[in-house]
Specification:
Blueprint (H helix, E strand, L loop, with lengths): L4 E6 L4 H9 L4 H9 L1 E6 L5 H11 L3 H4 L5 E4 L4 E4 L18 E9 L10 E7 L11 E3 L3 H9 L18 H27 L5 E6 L1 H9 L10 H4 L6 H17 L7 E6 L2 E4 L3 H16 L28 H6 L7 H9 L8 H15 L24 E3 L6 E5 L15 H12 L3 E2 L7 E6 L16 E5 L7 E3 L3 E3 L8 E4 L1 E7 L7 E2 L3 E2 L3 H8 L21
Parallel strand pairs: 1-8, 1-9, 2-20, 2-21, 5-6, 5-8
Antiparallel strand pairs: 2-19, 3-4, 6-7, 9-19, 10-18, 11-12, 12-15, 13-16, 14-15, 16-17
Helix pairs in contact: 6-7, 6-9, 7-9
């Protein structure tokens, strides 16, 4: 008789955090599961860690095989970036989701992010109900299933499809609203999951709790002393992030109560989080650094003079301002009209503000201004008009620092010859390693990864970046360069960011209670689950089953 496999992902839940809390007596259901079975750490890609984690898990393959590194695709002819497909997820044309195993197995998939509806699944699929960054349209199979669930249990209140599961650390009311939305969303998620689990004894039931991802992004500073904002924002008698994870732990207990007694139960995270060392450094500091590298003496970001004592972390006067708009207050805009329009924008009624943006686009076109947007959704877009004149530039992303060399023969207006490519890379790496936190003097770059052996490498499965900057694991808002002076200070954004570490714990028939598993990789989870299902493991998978005979009693 086959045993069911129940696999529940805690999206981006950090193992260091969870292990600490379990040791302190929190998260009792997760701790009990760990005691009753086996537990081990996982690693994932050290670079492109935020973008590729779920695709690695879902395919059992590394990005070098799938070619999926990021939701964005760079066009070297136009110097434009665009979202892959409809919403940026991997298309699964070459490598299917691992759970698409055909008619022989009954499979249920609920709210897994960044996957797809597969006709190779015999069972039910309901996607993009409330997953963080689902990157897919809402869909289900049978087609009416998702509508049925929403009608019965309600929609997710945070509107995660449009990325509204967010808050600003300097706006306490937005933080409180997000916490309420996540709590209601978790209650509804729990009810839906219990319903689907109880419908039949599935060969595989796969789901993810997406709220853990959001909670760490936006509550880290209220929970963990390693964030610079902790002292000015946290409360001594409350830890909102721990409170939320306690609620997730209770939800986990309710869900697993529906699991068959002889089932294999897996709880996992394919990657983790820590203090946000990425948003400011990758999205603001690195583009400005590369601009100064190409145009010495010039700057698009207002910054403090080198050698001055940095002020306390910047706090906006108006807590309702978005981070993206706050950054524009720090911009040395080459177009005075843009600066003027931004200054009057807060003073006009909201319904007229879109017309201001439309007016500026027409103005920029008439005057030949290199800037065409009054407010850019990503600060790196400030620099995009100058990419064709730069030796190297930053490609937008959401975790590590992605650098593209403006290479002759590859880029339509390339200025770095193939003979100069390695020298430019070497110079960048040297200068990057000299960047320091202006508050502490500590180096901020952990390593710089070269993605190509030679400039002519044109394998379509390589990432768009030539260099990837992996930052040290601490939050920084002002940076010093001995050659390019100070960059910042900058307003902090999200306070938690991704780490390439995860975990998994499993209990079930033959699993030795209290055992410890050797470290694995996130791509190993897919073949491990298939092995437990007694399903075939595709030869193309990079991952290998994690359970050896030594684990079983």
């Amino acid at each position: 008789m086959k045993n069911s496999v129940i696999a529940i992902g805690l999206d981006s839940a950090d193992p260091v955090l969870l292990e600490k809390w379990m040791s302190e007596g929190h998260l009792k259901n997760l701790a009990r599961l760990r005691q009753q079975g086996a537990y081990g750490r996982l690693v994932n890609m050290e670079y492109y860690k935020g973008e590729s984690a779920w695709t690695n898990f879902l395919t059992g393959c590394l990005p070098h095989k799938t070619g999926y590194w990021s939701k964005f695709d760079f066009n070297p002819k136009t110097y434009q970036t665009k979202t892959l497909g409809e919403h940026g997820a991997y298309d699964f044309n070459e490598y299917a989701p691992f759970y698409a195993v055909g008619d022989k197995y009954r499979v249920a998939v609920f709210d897994m992010p960044q996957t797809t509806i597969s006709d190779r699944v015999n069972g039910i699929q309901a996607l993009a109900w409330g997953a963080h960054a689902p990157m897919i349209d809402r869909a289900s199979e049978p087609k009416g299933l998702l509508s049925e669930l929403i009608e019965k249990y309600g929609d997710h209140p945070a509107d995660t499809f449009h990325h509204n599961d967010r808050s600003d650390w300097y706006n306490p009311s937005s933080v409180a609203k997000l916490k309420r939305d996540l709590e209601v969303g978790l209650e509804r998620r729990t009810a839906i999951t219990k319903d689907l689990l109880s419908r039949e004894q599935w060969d595989l039931f796969l789901t993810a709790i997406g709220e853990t991802h959001t909670a760490q992004h936006y509550f880290w500073h209220l929970s963990q002393p390693d964030h610079p904002l902790y002292k000015q924002t946290a409360s001594a008698d409350r830890d909102p992030m721990l409170e939320y994870f306690e609620a997730v732990d209770e939800s986990l207990g309710e869900m697993l109560a529906e699991a068959p007694e002889n089932a294999y139960v897996i709880v996992f995270s394919a990657h983790g989080q820590g203090a946000n060392s990425a948003d400011l450094l990758s999205m603001v500091v690195l583009p400005e650094f590369l601009y100064r590298f190409s145009f010495p003496g010039k700057s698009l970001l207002k910054s403090q003079e080198m050698g001055m004592t940095p002020p306390p972390p910047l706090t906006p006067k108006n807590p309702k301002d978005s981070w993206y708009k706050l950054l524009h207050n720090l911009k040395n805009d080459p177009d005075p009209m843009a600066t003027f329009l931004r200054s009057v924008e807060p003073k006009i009624p909201g319904r007229f503000r879109p017309y201001l943006t439309k007016f500026y686009k027409k103005w920029a076109k008439l005057t030949g201004s290199p800037q065409t947007e009054l407010f850019s959704w990503h600060p790196s877009k400030w620099y995009q008009p100058y990419w064709p004149q730069m030796k190297a530039f930053y490609i937008p992303g959401f975790s590590d620092g992605y650098i593209r060399i403006n290479l002759q023969g590859r880029e339509s207006q390339g200025i770095v010859s193939p003979a100069e490519y390695n020298a430019v890379c070497d110079e960048l790496i040297e200068q990057l390693h000299q960047l320091t936190d202006a508050r502490t003097g500590k180096p901020i770059v952990k390593k710089v990864v070269r993605t190509r052996q030679k400039p002519t490498d044109n394998d379509p499965k390589l990432p768009d970046s030539d260099l990837v900057v992996v930052w040290e694991d601490f939050a920084v808002d002002v940076v010093d360069s001995p050659k390019y002076d100070r960059i910042g200070p900058i307003y902090f954004n999200r306070t938690g960011a991704h780490r390439p570490r995860g975990f998994w714990t499993i209990k079930g028939p033959g699993i030795e209670a209290g055992s410890t598993l050797a470290e694995g990789h996130a791509v190993d989870l897919a073949p491990t689950i298939l092995e437990l299902m007694d399903a075939p493991i595709p030869e193309y998978m990079d991952g290998k089953p994690l359970l050896s005979t030594k684990v079983f009693a």
